[in-house]
Amino acid sequence: MADPRLRRQLAEGKFVAAPGVFEMITARIAESIGFDAVYVTGYGTVASHLGLPDAGLATYTDMLSRISRICELSSVPVIADADTGYGGLLNVQHTVRGYERAGVTAIQIEDQEFPKKCGHTPYRRVIPLDDMLRKIEVAAEARTSDDFLIIARTDARTGHGLEEAIRRAEAFGNAGADILFVESPESRDEMAEVCRSLKKPCIANMADGGRTPILPAAELQELGYALAIWPALGFLSMGAAVAHAYTRFKETGSSTHDDVPLYNFQDFSKLMGFQEIWDFEERHKEVAE
């Protein structure tokens, strides 16, 4: 079931900052730190699960299997990428129902042509506005709870300009979207214009290395954003750390270096749930005669 807290937080004007998670280690770390929400990133999930680019190659089944597991673990609202809805209108209906059953709280659907591409890479094209509006209407009709929120994203900024992107986002809100996502504005002024122009809650995408300036949460809230996602933070930091550790190991033949921080093994075991296993075994151990 969708978590009602995200809707309440938006209604109360509380800014929500959600880190990107993409597999179970990042999900467990995010859970242990304590966030108001987490974001299941399509880019990171496809890279982690399939070792492939986020270019429309992952299926609904690929994504749902990972998202379901993250929802089971998470005690906070889960926002999840659903690309274009994985096809036409019937696919959108199927996707919304599946994500909602899995425990997702907010589903992100975008207006790209299929196959879609990461929103900060080139050669993205958008579908006609009317086609996207029908997708949003189907999504709103398919959900069973108003706590299940629809995030409608437009990728029109790069190819058609900011004015067209804002026009589309406004139409998305009128069609039933709860949260509006103008992807890849290219300056702070553009980000401010998005928030000034749109009446429904807006989401910012803080994709490190992408087209949009990376701003702190307090500044995003000041601009007028209701929530923001940091989708790449987890996989870029993990990639950098693993690359450094493996390089030093290759160079020296050792895993022990002052410049290679390692998670304490006992703490990591507890993070993965071993404490519950140890407690169970202690309760049920055989009594020596």
From TrEMBL:
It holds the Pfam family PEP_mutase. It comes from the Bacteria. SUPFAM superfamilies: Phosphoenolpyruvate/pyruvate domain. This is Oxaloacetate decarboxylase. It comes from Marinibaculum pumilum. The lineage of its organism: Bacteria, Pseudomonadati, Pseudomonadota, Alphaproteobacteria, Rhodospirillales.
